[in-house]
Write a structure and sequence with these properties.
Number of helices: 7
Bound molecules: flavin mononucleotide
Helix content: 25-40%
CATH architecture of one domain: 3-Layer(aba) Sandwich
CATH superfamily of one domain: NADH Oxidase
Number of strands: 5
Length: 219
């Protein structure tokens, strides 16, 4: 069992950041740590206890590069969209500065995704399409995203950094082909780099007062 950082539950939950600049791209990550994180992830909830999850773990340099190239291409598309972190203007100076930092950090990952020592793609059985939306989509992705987040929390506890990304899903089928994931039967939920972090001290991010998003007894 790996040595765990001394973080209480609230500290773990509030300091598991989207790590990009501080990924140590040079240091190898032992496979037993990835396996420990997956074991933690398997304790997450799933609808009807289906546990229809898979974690595709990519360490092969050529495959990481191929997935990284797909991610870079998707990132270029994203940069032209109004939802690009750097394009979002809220009028609040502190919030806009935070968006600027997210954008430059995201740009860096756009270039370096394939350089991370490990890439992990949490997947779930099934594919939502046609009329099969709404509850089906929420239930299917709800069967993997809590587990993926548990994986990321377990990684943080072990000194590893992650960053939840979804942009490569623009070209999901290409990544399925690179990694032999059966595209018609299995959906990829996200892609995260996994690497040791440069330093282990991360801070909670600035967020608005929780009352601004609370709706007690109705909207
Ligand atoms: C659904 C979802 C999709 C995301 N997709 C990407 C992505 O494709 N690329 C990326 O760099 N970050 C992505 N992120 C990470 C967010 O940018 C990050 O969580 C946000 O900026 C807050 O950063 P923080 O957790 O460090 O405060 C995604 C996060 C979520 C929840």
């Amino acid at each position: 069992m790996a040595h765990l950082l001394d973080l209480d539950p609230d500290q773990l939950l509030s300091t598991t950041r989207a790590v990009r600049f501080r990924l140590d791209l040079e240091r190898p990550v032992p496979m037993n740590l990835i396996e420990e994180c997956i074991a933690v992830a398997q304790q997450a909830p799933t609808g009807s206890n289906m546990q229809s999850w898979h974690f595709v773990v990519v360490t092969d340099a050529d495959k990481r590069k191929a997935v990284g190239d797909v991610y870079r291409r998707a990132f270029e598309v994203y940069k032209g969209l109004p939802i690009y972190a750097g394009a979002v203007q809220t009028g609040d100076a502190a919030r806009d500065a935070q968006q600027g930092r997210v954008a430059s950090s995201a740009d860096y990952l756009g270039e370096h995704m394939g350089d991370a020592p490990v890439l992990v793609i949490p997947c779930v059985n099934g594919r939502v399409g046609g009329d099969n939306v709404g509850m089906a989509a929420a239930s299917m992705m709800g069967g993997i995203i809590p587990a993926a987040w548990s994986f990321m929390l377990a990684a943080r506890a072990r000194g590893l950094g992650t960053c939840l990304t979804t942009l490569h899903l623009m070209f999901e089928q290409e990544v399925a082909e690179i990694l032999d994931i059966p595209f018609n039967e299995v959906s990829q939920a996200l892609l995260t780099p996994v690497a040791y972090t440069k330093g282990t001290d991360f801070k909670p991010a600035s967020r608005p007062d929780p009352q601004s998003i609370m709706h007690i007894d109705g909207w």
